[in-house]
Each structure stands twice: as C-alpha cells, then as structure tokens.
C-alpha cells in the first residue's frame, strides 16, 4: 500500500491539486482573476515541493506503470516548469474571467505527461498522451474573444486527432506483430519485419507531430500564433520536454532493435528541422512566432543529441532540456509581460527596451544568449554536448551543418538584443510593472541559466542519474 | 610564486567593478563611475606589478605552473574542464601590460569621455573588457581561453559600437564581430581537433603530450592525412586562424581599420595593447607544440606575419585618417611579432625570436597606447580624424606634442627608445634565420619610420596657422584635463625605459634565462634606414609645400593602390559580388545592400529566400497539413521498408 503511494506520489499529488482547484472554483464565484492566480500558484508550489519529497523505485499494475529516481527527477523538472508557467501567466490572467479553468486545464495536461513518462505499456502511454493533448486544445482557444485563438484550438485538436489516428494504427500493428503492448515484451520480440517497420514509422510520426519535427510541424505556427503567450510557452517548453523524454525511452529501450531504421530518420528529420526552424525564425517579426520557430530549431538540436544513442546521450538531452526550459520560459515570460501590459508583440516594438526597462531587457538578453548558445551561458554547453553526442556516430558533415546553423541562429537571436540595446523608436514601450509572481519566475529562470552554466555539478547529477538507468 | 589572493584579486576587481557599474550603478553611481573603475584598475595594476616582481625575482627558471584551479565541468570521465590561473613568464608579463594600459585608459577616459550620457555604461564595458582579457591571459586550458576569447570579442563589440547612434560605428562593430567570429569558428574546430587527439585541453599536459616524440597521442595526431596535412597541422592552423582573426593578420585584417569608429581610448586599449595581441599570445602559449611537433604550421605563422607586416606598412603610408594610420601601423607591428615567433626555434639561442617577439609585444603596448592616446587628445581638440584638418599644433599642445614625438621615435626604432631594443632583437633573430625575411623586415622598418613621421609632421608642423576653416580649434579644451595628460606622461616614460628591461632573463621559449647580446654593428643599418625614413618624411612634410602632391602625382597608380588599401575591401566585394553572386543566382537588387557586410549575412539572405519558398506550404488550411503529414509518413515508411531492408 505505501509502495503504491510512493511510486504514484507525483500523480496523486497533482490529481489532488486538480481536485482542490475544481472544488475551490465551484465553491467560490466572487474571486478576482489575480487572487485566483495567487491561490493556484501556491497549490502548484505545493505540488512541486511535494514532488521532491519521495523517491521510490518499482512498478505497479503488472508493469504498466513504473517509476524510478530518474523519472522522479524528470517529473520534478516538469513540475517546476509548470510552476514557472503559472507564475508567468499571472499578468495575462489578471483580467481573465476563467483563470481557474486555465490552471485546471494546464495541470491536467501535466498529469497526462506524468503518466506518459511512467508508462510501461502502450495503452497507458496513449492515454497519457491524449490527456496531455486535449486540454491543450482548449487552452490554445483561451482568448475567447479572438477568432485567431479559436482557430488555433480547432487546428490543434483536428491535427492531433489526425496524428493520434496514425499513432493508434501503429500501436495496433505493434500488437499484431509482437503479441503484446508491454514495452519489455515489444523490445524482446521486435525484429524489423516490414509490418513492424511500418508500425514503427507510424509511432514515430505520432511523436514527430507532438514534437513539431519537420515535416510534421505545419500545425505549429498557426497554433502558436493564435494561442495566448503562456500557452505557447507551455506548448513549446513543457509539452516538448515531456514528449522528448518519452521519445528517448521509446527509441532506446522499446525499439532499440530498430536503430538502423531510426538513425536515418533522425538524421534526416533533424537536419530538416534545424534548417526549417532557422529559416522561419529568421523571417519572423512577431516575437511569439519567432520564439515558436526558434524552438522548432532547438528540437532539431535535441534530435541531434538523441541520435548519438550512447551512454551519455540521455543525460545530455535531459541537461539541455533543463537549460532550454529556463531559457525559453524566461524569453516567453518577458514577451508575455510586455504583451499583457501593452499588447505589443512585434520585435520592432522592442526597440529601445533597454532604456525603459533595463531589467526586462537584460533578462531577455541572457535568455536569448543562452538559447543562441553563446558562451558562457548554459545554452552553450547544452548545445556543445548535443553536438558531441551526435558526433559520436561519425556524421561529421551533418554535425558541420548543424554547427553552421548554430551560427546562423546566433544572428537572429542577437537581432533582438540589438533592437533592445542599440536601436530607438519614436514610440518606445513605457515602464512596465513586473509584478511579484512573474519577477520571481524570471529570477528563477535566470538563476537556473547561470547556475547550470557555471557549475558542473548540475550536469554531473543528471549524468550519474541517467547512467544508473 | 606570487600570492594567490593577489592574482585572484587582479581578476576580480575589474569584474566587480563591471557588475557594480553595469547592473546597479546606471543612475545611482553615475558621478562616481569613472573614479570607481579607475581605482579598481589602479589597485589591479599595482597588484600585477607586485606579483610580477615577486615572480621574476624569486627563481631563475620559470616553468608554467597552475596556481589555482577548480573542476568546473565534468564532461566525461576522461575529459573534464577546469578553470584556473596559470602562472608563467608570459602570463605574468601580460597581466602587467593589460592592467597598466587599461589603467591608463581608464584614467584618460575620465577627461575624454566626460559629459557623455552613457559614461557609466562606458566604464562598465571597459571593466568587462579588462576582466575578459585578464581571464584569457591566465587561462589554464584551451577551453577556458576560448570562453574568455569570446567574452573579449563580445565586450570589444560593445565598445567599438559604443556610439551606436552612428551608423558607421554600428556597421564597424558588426564587421569586427562577424570577421572574428568566422575566425573563431576555426579556432573552436582547432581546439576540438587538438583536444580530441591529445585527450586533454590542459595546456601543460597538452604541450607535454604533443612535444614528446614517443608519445602515442602525437603519433595518432600526426599519422593521418587530410588534404595533404596531418590532423595536428590542421588543428594548429585552425587555432592560428582564430589568433589571426583577433590579431588582424592578413587577410583577416579588414575589420581593424573600421573598428577605429569606437572612442579613441578604446582603440588604445583594444587595438594597441590587448585584444589584438591575443593572437600572438595564443601562438606563444602553444609555442612548444608549434616549434617541436609541427614546423610547417610555424612557417605559416612566419609568412602570414611578414606579409601582414609589410603590407600594412605600405598602406599606412597613404592613409589620411589619423587613427587609420595607427591601425595599420598596429597591424604591421603585430606582423613583426608574428613572424618573429614564426622564425624562432625552441630552446637556447635558437629561441631568440620567441623572446624578441614577446619583448616587442611588451614595448609596443606602451608606445602604441601612447600614440593612440596622443591621437585622442588631438582629435578631442580638432574634432576631426582627418589629417588635413590638423597641422601646426605643436605650440598649442606642447605636452601631447612631446608625448607623440617620443611615441614616434620609439616605434621608428631610434635608440635609446623602447622600440629600438625589441626591434633590434627581432632583426637579429631574422638575420640569423632567413635573409629574405630580414630584408623585408628592414624595409618595413624604414616604411614605419616614414609613415609615423609623416603623421607627426602633418599634425604638429606643416601648416603654421594650425587652424583649418572647416574645423576651428576648440580653445576651451586646451589640451584636456590633467587626467588626460598624466597617462600621456606616464606612458612616455614607459616608451623610453621599457626597452631597458633585461627581457631575455625573464621570458624565453624554454623557461631558462637567455642572455642577449646586442652588437652595435648590427644596429647601424636598421637605425640608418629608420633615419632615412624620417629624413624623407621631414623633407616632404615638415613645411607645407607642393612636394607631396608632386610625388603623389608622379606615382599616382601606386599611391592610389596604397590609399585604397590594396583594394582588399574591394576584392572582397568583387569576390562576393561577381563570383559568389552569379553562382547563387540571386538578382542584384537586393544583394547590393549587404555585400559590405560580407558573406555571413549573404547566407542569411539566401536562406531567407528559400524560407519564402518553403512558406508556400504553410497555407493555414488543416486539410493541407494533413496531406503533408500523410505524404511525409509514406515517404518515411517507403524509405524504411524498401531502402533499408
């Protein structure tokens, strides 16, 4: 019994938090948007802190659900991410009449991710994936009075239903050829006959869709553009991080026998993803779309790391995800603050930001430097490690192209820094009140970027953790 | 051994000053910013001199030692990255040079930058730059040096582009950043090759492993061949490429003259004494590997150095912008240092070139900073960089005049000024190593004397009135404040006596003292040539006359070639415009706009166009997305099933 509580403690705690939120919402109708936010952020903090308490290893329900220190760590990272998104969303939710629902939906998706991460069975994985996706469609449509936002929601739900159908078809084929949906069983029986290859390809596209890997990324731009900034941040950071981690374990441990197939898949898609992401990011003037596309390019680099498939790869990817989480949330956070206060989302509006809001400008600069991989920020090490991992396969041409893209990406990240520090405009953004909650979140992000970049112990911890599983 | 606390303080003081000024002090500390930055640098400089003194007076044999290090990143079990402080003769020497010159510049800027609305920011950037440069100098491994190398690049980018409302300053800082970044990419690849081959990034271990002929690492690195050179050669050449980019060696020098758009004291700091010699320092740091394991790479250093040296000296003769003359002269002098390293051997008498090169680095820092600061005072007074707006200033600016004259004599190599000794050592080494190099170097020395005195006469003599109509002399300024004159005087003293330091006792290729004997006989020819150069300059430029114009007329083609810097910028332009361009096949209309910014941005634009093509697929209709989804899926599946099985 205690075993059950220990292994499932993340999921139970989060469910409890969701139920609490629901009850609070039902019981109270008079609360304002910001007081809701504060209350629910406290709950998210409890969720994060509670998650840290227990570590247990084992499996439940005949191996359908498993847990270990690494998974706990990953869930803690995601909980932290959710907390940060919650804090950063406060200015956006201040005047929104459904701020409680926002938190309930977003917490539900995290619950889905937790199950997905811990799944030892295709069905649980699928259920988790759907739980992590469907509320997101509602969240994307959260700007109720904007057509763009509804469009984003509709597009997300349609496209993800479409990709789910293929994923399910793939899972059925897996069952048909392997006789089991248990991950361990599949790993034992998978041999690489054509039907299995087809099945694997279908499963692969399911992941590719969720991760916006090119050429399965088309939904991304429209959804990010329409969705509110906190939702876009959540989609591009937390949701991606969770799916990436599952993707790694599915590739490495479930379909490890098919490495000869997925290596070229990853090679081609990583290349396409990096290049396309960069090309699009370069052209964007809207900060939200810009961050969305640059995060597509980042996924390409993550794929490069996964490609390595050696003992270090998983740790390297996890380390990068952590840095990416801090950096991207900081960038989205600043963009969200500015958008909530002034409604401005164009990069041109950021001209002269340093003069009026030096703190925000510096925060965004550090975040962008980290995303661009400028030493000595954490992002540089993250990228360097990813490329090293990819290079262990000996594809130097590919690594060369990826490295070149890193330089190209530097150009567009620095463009924003240049706008903030070196350009002026007739109508600069005025002084923006930050508010306590977002300030805390941004400070945490910057601390995360700096600490994980300047101290090796972060990476070492992750490295050791992944080595033992 | 100097005390560790002092060493750390030397680095931390500028860093703290940067943090304080950059993050907290924008408004609150504004009146104090200059004082704060200058004081912290003053203490740093004192500590550096003290540390160097204790270090050099303690023992006679100086092997590199790691004074302090911490494990910073555990990359894998076999490869970890440390941060530390390396103590050896060249790092101690560089600490002194960087902190002293930086202190002078801090002090000088109190007057020069007075009243600038971003005064605090300026000092924050200066402190950041100094810190990065110091970190670079004391690096214990290739990785640390790379990190600080980049930081130096970023902070110099900020300083060059300090007047960001001037479009030329912005484009200059961009150019500097892009060109050096391009070189740094080579540097990074070089580091990876060396680190991969030697399985270490640590300087001491790396040098030990790559200089021992029986070591397996050296064997592995020199065994393979790629495009006709071993991995070791490639690694070292790529590392040198990084150095050549920062040190503005031909053909990566194009950023240096443009970088003169920054405030003049910044040029004195970055483009005289510190950042531009980073490349020399890098080669010196890895010198045993170059000299023992890979003489081919050292030959490249040699020829790059000598070509840059004579090339820049020729161009400097025909420039009309005071700071550009100094910029090309810097490039020429760094070329001197480079080729001296290139012709040096390892150990004993053969290592004279090494000692001479670093000696020249040391003396050059003083007299070139002096010249730049002097030029700054002139510009401050005349409000123009153009030589034609100056003339006859010697009576109005007696202190500057004297300082500038000392700087010119020093750089021309007239005894007993500092430049004479170091240049003489270089020439001696060259004479022993390679007569061709020796003669080219000698001609360069003559040219140097000529163009420096041309500059000197045009500024301080020539037109007696001293007033140009376009730019009336600002009488209120006078020569500037005492804080501007003091550094000039101090550096003048340095330019006179720095040559008397018995440098060979302290710095040599293998760490054992090298006793250098200068023969008076050897010095006669170089000094005569320098005097000839000065004489020619005196004849043409001392008084305003039509002689230079006539000369210019008679050698019109040659002069125009020099004036236009051998058309190098135009050649780059030509290559990008007429060769790269038709190959990519883009219409000329949009290409023209950014040719100046070089190929990097060209790549950006090209990809931009491709992006537009790809964008057509982003229709916004979910049906289309589904179609693309299925098409991609089928492609992947066919690919997997038929091509791989």
List the defining traits of the structure above.
heterodimer, A: 469 residues, mainly alpha, 20 helices, globular, B: 645 residues, 28 helices, 2 strands
Describe this structure in words.
The complex is a heterodimer of chains A (469) and B (645). Chain A is built from 20 helices and two strands. By secondary structure, chain A is mostly helical. Chain A has one domain (2-467). Chain A has a two-stranded antiparallel ribbon. In chain A, helix 6 (122-140) packs antiparallel against helix 7 (147-178), helix 11 (229-254) runs antiparallel to helix 14 and helix 12 (259-283) runs antiparallel to helix 13 (287-308). Chain B is mainly α. Helices cover 71% and strands 3% of the residues of chain B. Chain B has helices at 4-28, 33-58, 89-112, 119-137, 142-160, 167-198, 203-211, 216-223, 231-246, 255-258, 264-273, 278-285, 287-293, 295-316, 322-343, 352-382, 398-412, 418-433, 435-460, 482-497, 503-506, 520-541, 547-554, 556-563, 568-584, 588-594, 598-615, 622-643, and strands at 65-74, 80-87. Chain B has a two-stranded antiparallel sheet. In chain B, a hairpin with a 5-residue loop joins strand 1 and strand 2. The longest helix of chain B has 32 residues, at 167-198. The relative contact order of chain B is 0.08. Classes of the chains: A mainly alpha (469), B mainly alpha (645). At the A-B interface, helix 7, helix 9, helix 10, helix 12 and helix 18 of A face strand 1, helix 5, helix 6, helix 27 and helix 28 of B.
